[in-house]
Amino acid sequence: MFNMSLFKTRLFSAAASTIILSAGMGGVHAETPAPGGEVAFNIDAPMLGDALRAFGAQSGTP
């Protein structure tokens, strides 16, 4: 049996969640390097996990 009240409640909750999550994504963007700017990394790690940790440490990103 279809319950209109329950449907409206769930629809409102879904819409509110979508709006809240969308608003939080407004400040997310990728940093672009300056034109002609190059960054040198010194990563000497044979294992992928070690290389990713070294990259994160040198680039300043977790």
From TrEMBL:
<feature type="signal peptide">
    <location>
        <begin position="1"/>
        <end position="30"/>
    </location>
</feature>
<keyword id="KW-0732">Signal</keyword>
<protein>
    <submittedName>
        <fullName>Uncharacterized protein</fullName>
    </submittedName>
</protein>
